[in-house]
């Protein structure tokens, strides 16, 4: 575990970078490829989470350890539940054993699956005895993690009568459900999402498809932040105007609040600081649809001394760490005092930042990457630099390319 010191830096003008494929799209396509076999994938994510999922799918071991990868844990639960005549023990890191899986397990049990909790009820590790699932209608609480629902949707086409899922309560992280639905459609599986009912039809005569994965918008957010604080143009390759990723919302966010315009040309986006930018008085937003870019947003706003009040965040507490507490602790070091509640974070006041800043990362890749652009305001050290490998192993290399130390 080593720390990284980032000296006070400025942005090099007009750098162009290539970020690897979306982690969320990659993890879906790997599961779908294994289930339906008709997909050729290009530009797969190089994230550790994707590699873990890929090796789990290629493994015939009884015990599968997916470490810290929440999407992999949830997606593989349904996958192994339908692998007839195979028993799998699905486990993960200590943190994974605290991340809930109960609504997914209960939905699978209602479909006829055989799953046991091996330690704490409601949490991994799981013993999954693969079965043919006989039922096809379930209800699920949609407010804890959309990953449960995406996981069920992906096996839906394999069930004899397809699958009907009724979503109960407020739907969290909805764009990720739409991403799953769109990818099912792309590979030829009929599905509908209307009001709170999702229907997946049995897969029939699927033609082979080549899918090129778009680069990762959540990873792009760190460059939006750098551009907002450092005010120089940065370009990023392999992005689409009609993205499947909800985090493409970052473009609108940084245009509305931080004066960063996004221009698309030949699948390259250029992040361009607008000259006449006046800071908003306050950023008030519900970010329930885009939980993964909340840390970036709060770190940028704090660096630029723009007060914020962000709601819709109840799922942040059950991610890689309790992201609300982690944010509160670390934002204070850069001079932003916040109040947090069950599902919100808001600025109370700005104070002088600490002189020597050490950002703790709580085993959370996004804590490291979202604070890194603060070096454009002040030098800082970030703890455990390897933590970024979970989603973006080349982050420090790419980030170094846009910086030059300020003497
Ligand atoms: O389906 C996905 O690929 C994801 C869904 C979101 O999780 P929740 O639905 O648990 O919010 C997101 O935070 C995660 O990084 C990726
Ligand atoms: C929450 C995340 O991932 P996961 O839930 O897949 O661990 C993330 O990448 O921010």
UniProtKB/TrEMBL annotation:
Keywords from the named record: Amino-acid biosynthesis, Aromatic amino acid biosynthesis, Transferase
Could you tell me which InterPro entries the record lists for this protein?
Answer: Enolpyruvate_Tfrase_dom, Enolpyruvate_Tfrase_sf, EPSP_synthase, EPSP_synthase_CS, RNA3'P_cycl/enolpyr_Trfase_a/b
Instruction: Check the record and name the Gene3D superfamilies matching this protein.
Output: Enolpyruvate transferase domain
Superkingdom of origin: Bacteria
Give start and end of each Enolpyruvate transferase domain.
Answer: 61-398
> According to its UniProt record, which reaction does this protein catalyse?
3-phosphoshikimate + phosphoenolpyruvate = 5-O-(1-carboxyvinyl)-3-phosphoshikimate + phosphate
Q: Which PROSITE patterns match?
A: EPSP_SYNTHASE_2 (PS00885)
Q: In which pathway does it act?
A: Metabolic intermediate biosynthesis; chorismate biosynthesis; chorismate from D-erythrose 4-phosphate and phosphoenolpyruvate: step 6/7
Q: Which family does it belong to?
A: Belongs to the EPSP synthase family.
The organism is Cruoricaptor ignavus
What PANTHER family does the entry give?
Answer: AROM/DEHYDROQUINATE SYNTHASE (PTHR21090), PENTAFUNCTIONAL AROM POLYPEPTIDE (PTHR21090:SF5)
GO biological process terms held by the UniProt record: amino acid biosynthetic process; aromatic amino acid family biosynthetic process; chorismate biosynthetic process
Question: What is this protein's record name?
Answer: 3-phosphoshikimate 1-carboxyvinyltransferase
Enzyme class, broadest EC rank:
transferase
Q: Which GO terms describe its molecular function?
A: 3-phosphoshikimate 1-carboxyvinyltransferase activity
Q: Look up the EC number in the record and give it.
A: 2.5.1.19
């Amino acid at each position: 575990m080593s720390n990284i010191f980032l000296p006070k830096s400025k942005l090099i003008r007009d750098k162009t970078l290539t970020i690897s494929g979306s982690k969320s799209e990659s993890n879906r396509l790997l599961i779908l490829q294994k289930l339906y076999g008709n997909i050729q994938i290009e530009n797969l994510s190089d994230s550790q989470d994707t590699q873990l999922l890929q090796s789990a799918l290629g493994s015939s071991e009884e015990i599968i350890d997916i470490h810290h990868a929440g999407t992999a844990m949830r997606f593989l639960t349904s996958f192994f539940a339908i692998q007839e005549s195979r028993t799998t023990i699905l486990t993960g890191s200590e943190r994974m054993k605290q991340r809930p899986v109960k609504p997914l397990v209960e939905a699978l049990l209602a479909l006829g699956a055989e799953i046991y909790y091996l330690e704490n009820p409601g949490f991994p590790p799981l013993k999954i005895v693969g079965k043919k699932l006989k039922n096809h209608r379930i209800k699920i609480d949609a407010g804890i993690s959309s990953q449960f629902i995406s996981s069920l949707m992906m096996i839906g086409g394999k069930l004899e009568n397809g699958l009907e899922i009724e979503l109960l309560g407020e739907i969290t992280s909805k764009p990720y459900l739409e991403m799953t639905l769109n990818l099912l459609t792309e590979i030829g599986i009929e599905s509908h999402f209307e009001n709170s009912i999702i229907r997946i039809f049995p897969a029939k005569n699927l033609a082979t498809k080549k899918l090129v994965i778009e680069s990762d918008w959540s990873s792009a957010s760190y460059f939006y932040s750098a551009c907002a604080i450092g005010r120089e143009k940065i370009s990023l390759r392999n992005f689409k105007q009609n993205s499947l990723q909800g985090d493409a919302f970052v473009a609108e966010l940084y245009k509305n609040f931080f004066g960063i315009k996004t221009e698309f040309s030949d699948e390259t986006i250029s992040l361009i600081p607008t000259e006449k930018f006046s800071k908003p008085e306050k950023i008030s937003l519900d970010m329930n649809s885009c939980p993964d870019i909340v840390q970036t947003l709060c770190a940028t706003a704090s660096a630029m001394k723009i007060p914020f009040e962000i709601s819709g965040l109840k799922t942040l507490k059950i991610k890689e760490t309790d992201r609300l507490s982690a944010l509160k602790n670390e934002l204070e070091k850069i001079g932003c005092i916040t109040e947090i509640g069950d599902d919100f974070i808001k600025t109370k006041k700005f104070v002088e930042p600490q002189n020597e800043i050490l950002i703790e990362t709580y085993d959370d890749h996004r804590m490291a990457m979202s604070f890194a652009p603060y070096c454009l305001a002040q030098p800082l050290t970030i703890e455990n630099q390897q933590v970024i490998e979970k989603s973006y192993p080349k982050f420090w290399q790419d980030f170094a390319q846009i910086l030059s130390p300020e003497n």
